[in-house]
Each structure stands twice: as C-alpha cells, then as structure tokens.
Design brief:
- The chain is an alpha/beta fold.
- It contains ten helices and 14 strands.
- A seven-stranded mixed β-sheet has the order 1-5-4-6-13-7-14. Strands 10-9-11-8-12 form a five-stranded mixed β-sheet. It has a two-stranded antiparallel sheet with strand order 2-3.
- The longest helix is centred in the first third of the chain and has 16 residues, at 61-76.
- The protein starts with 9 loop residues before the first helix and ends with a helix.
C-alpha cells in the first residue's frame, strides 16, 4: 500500500547517509580504516604530476567501466587522465571544491551544488546528448479520469527515488508549483525508497504501479518511457501521459573554471570525438546510455536550482 507522508517536506524525506568510500584508479598506497558509523574509506596518495587530469564520479560498476574507457580514449589524444570514484555525490562535490579533481561527472543536483560552492566558478565542458532538454512526465492509468494537475487532489501519487531529480525533487516541485501540496492534497504518496519492490529501476516501478492501479498517477522521465517503449516493457494500453514538464538540463561533465583554456578545449574535443564506430567508444556510450557526447551548456539548470533551493538542499 502507498504510504502517506503528512506534513513532510522534500528535504525531510531525503536520505543523507554517510558517503565515505573512495576508489582511485592508480593505487600507489592504500589505507583502509573502519569505524561503526561510516562506510570503509579507501584512498591513495594523489599523484604529484601536475599535467595529469583527474576525473571524479560516483562509485558504480557502470562508471568504473566508462571511466576506464575514457582513460584509454583520452590517452590516445595525448591527455593523461586519471579517475577517482566516490560513494556519493556530496563527497565528489567536496573534492571538486577543494581542487582535488579537475573534472566531475555530475548529476543535476550535484552540479547546482558545485556551481554554488566553487569560488572560482565552473564550466560545463560536455554532456550526453540525452541530457539536453530532459523532460519529466506525469502518467496515470488509461481510464483514471485524471487529465490535469487539479485532478490529482485526493488521489495517490508515486515518486521515484528520493535522490532522483527527475522523478523525485522536480516532480515534488512541479506539484507544488501547480498548487498541489504533496503532503496534504494527495490521498497517499510514496517514494520508491519506501516501497517494497523487485523492480531495480525506480521509474519502471512507478510505471508498473500506475499501470496496475495501485497508484492513480506518478512521475517518470521521458527517457525511461522511451526506453521501455523500445524494449517492449511499456504497458501502452494501461498508462498515458497527462502532463509534461518544460525541458531542462540533466547530467554533465564539469571542469574547474581555472583549467588551462587550451587543455579544456582538448578535453572537450576528446569527449565530442567518442564514437560507437570505435569498440572502446561504443562501450563508453552504451555504458552512459547515449548516442554521443555534446558541448556543455550553462542553460537549463534554473528549475533544478530553484527546486533545490526551495527544499533547502542548496
């Protein structure tokens, strides 16, 4: 059953657990320490080479494979790339702000955090093609009778993960902007984190629960809807879109603003040159579920920044 969240703001619902794990690609010396309240810490001494470019990201198997591929592709072009993986975005943001890494593979929320915290400014150096004009859809059961935001009053709503911008933070914000208080005006609502699910994808879980009638409506990204349509898992006869958000920017590779302009141009060119005609490039693009990398833009982050600020996340 859907859980009711009465009087709870988005910030109150967000999980803010410890993020301590650090994985580095080049291991000169490894120190491990444990205590009862944190995850294991794995770190190594940063390389003293000043011409090395260090890329940071979050510690997923996907990112490890992608970064290994990028390292090979960059070296072909004469760029000495090293990479570091952190257990969560907040640790990566902290490392970037301290100048410990030159590039960060940011999610949308971590980008607006970095943008706020970096004293010297930042540059969006590259993005995936899928990150331009990203969209959130509100879906409902085909015969629910829900056609507008106002129709959601006293109905149930399923969000994605609390950490999801597209199906969590922004969805929460879009409801509030339309005059719907998720904590008071919905009969029930829940985040993926609160639901017992065998579905690994939070947004696929939303689609399944709306299709089954467990929830009257829910939030899902255009990208997930398209992927489900392509692989045949979208229940077309059971769900429909009744509202779509304006487009916004999503994930991005962010560089330090004081990065040498010539080097920055070389890095951008290296990203843009990744192609699926090359086996390594194909692996990188498939790992990031995109067709290509495109030039970065500082446009399209306003909605995310506004929502994060309103919920006290930045």
């Amino acid at each position: 059953m859907a859980s009711r969240l009465q009087g709870v703001g988005y910030r109150d619902a967000v999980l803010l657990g410890p993020e301590k794990l650090v994985i580095t690609q080049r291991t000169e010396r490894i120190d491990c320490c444990y205590n009862s309240s944190t995850l294991p810490v794995v770190s190594n001494r940063p390389s003293e080479r000043s011409d090395m470019v260090r890329l940071g990201g979050t510690a997923t198997a996907n990112h490890m494979e992608v970064f290994e591929g990028l390292e090979k592709l960059f070296r072909r072009r004469g760029i000495d790339l090293d990479w570091v993986l952190y257990s969560g975005y907040d640790n990566m943001v902290d490392a970037f702000v301290k100048g410990e890494i030159d590039l960060a593979w940011n999610g949308p929320l971590s980008y607006v955090k970095i943008k706020r915290l970096a004293a010297d400014g930042v540059r969006v150096i590259a993005m995936r093609d899928a990150d331009i004009n990203f969209t959130t859809h509100f879906i409902t059961h085909a015969d629910s009778g829900i056609d507008t935001m106002e129709d959601l009053k006293d109905r149930s709503f399923a969000f994605g993960r609390r950490s999801s911008v597209q199906a969590g933070l922004l969805a929460f914000s879009f409801l509030k902007d339309s005059g719907i208080n998720p904590s008071k005006d919905l009969s029930a609502n829940s985040f993926y984190d609160d639901r017992q699910s065998d579905t690994k994808s939070d947004e696929c879980d939303v689609v399944e629960r709306v299709a089954s009638g467990e929830f009257d409506a829910g939030a899902v990204s255009q990208r997930v809807m398209e992927t489900m349509a392509e692989d045949g898992t979208l229940p077309r006869d059971a769900v429909r879109i009744f509202w779509s958000s304006p487009g916004y920017s999503h994930c991005c590779f962010t560089s330090q603003n004081d990065l040498d302009p010539e080097l920055a141009a070389e890095i951008e060119s290296a990203f843009l040159s990744v192609t699926d005609e090359d086996p390594i490039g194909k692996g990188v693009l498939e790992g990031e579920a995109c067709r290509s990398f495109v030039p970065g833009t500082d446009i399209g982050w306003e909605m995310i920044e506004k929502a994060a600020e309103a919920e006290g996340l930045i």
